[in-house]
Amino acid sequence: MQNGLLKGSPACEVYNKLNNNASNSEGCPKCDSFCKEFNNKKGTPKKYPDDFENTCKKILRNLFKLSDVLESEKSASDRCSYLSYWTYEQLWKKLTNPKCKETTESISKLHEVLLKFNAIDELKAKSCHIYLTGSFDKLKEEKEMHDFFKNFDYLKSKLKPVTSEKEKYCKYITRILELYNHHIRDCCTYFLKNSSRNTCEEYLKCEKQYYPYELLSILDCPSKSSYKKQEEFFEELAIDREVILRNRYSNALTCQGFMCDPFRVVITIGFALLGIFFLHFLYYKTTHSGTKSYDDIYRYKNIYNFLVSRDTAFEERLQREHDISPRRGINLSYYST
């Protein structure tokens, strides 16, 4: 495992347990019967690699006793992920040519055997499905990252700026950081409010505290200058980053004026409404008073003209009735005695 760099690490100890149990032929009688299909019978064309039957038995032994062998691992998913990557390593060691027919048929058949074995009564409540899909190159990358994150706390406590193997550790962690950058966008979805979603939990951790750059910083590796620091790196990965930053910018522009002060806004609106009401009142009073004054004057004027015309007519009539003409004498009644 990484040329001895990870010797004594948690992941290394787990794989040692699986290796030891795989070599124990006792305790799993069903394993032999399920793996007989990989026995190349004499007189028939060779279908599977030599001794692939034994490889199958090792895998099934660990699957059968997984919860006992890795009882120190409290999580069933952790136990299963360790067994999965241990199995992948056994396969690429045995099947050196991944593209040949012998390899593809062996993997396909082993996949069938694993499905059937997981269905036995002893494993129904504690099955571990090992998916033999994907290329060996991809599975190797996944195993590297899986083991790194399982050993992260161990490495963090062990590494120091000055160490005799600094160059080897820097090279190893730089390699992991390259893989991490390659996979993280496909596996992790980030949001600016410190939340994330992980679709590759079996081999990669999305939490910020597991960013491999931190170990480069502890060692002060020369390659650390080529990578972004934690805050900048994860901020750029946030899918809602653009929307949030745009809203922040928009709010900043809006709040440069008095509109940011609710009290001033209310006071301004109140005075504006009072001003509008006052103008309406003034307009009403002016218009109504002007109309009333004009009507009063017009009415008084008509009354005056009527009175004047009536007096004039009366005077003219009196003049006609009582006027004494100069040609007319006074008539006296005369009575004789």
UniProtKB/TrEMBL annotation:
According to UniProt, the name of this protein is: PIR protein
This protein's encoding gene? PmlGA01_070039000
Keywords noted in UniProt: Membrane, Transmembrane, Transmembrane helix
Q: Where are the transmembrane segments?
A: 263-284
Question: Which branch of life, at top level?
Answer: Eukaryota
Return any one Pfam family short name. Answer: Plasmodium_Vir
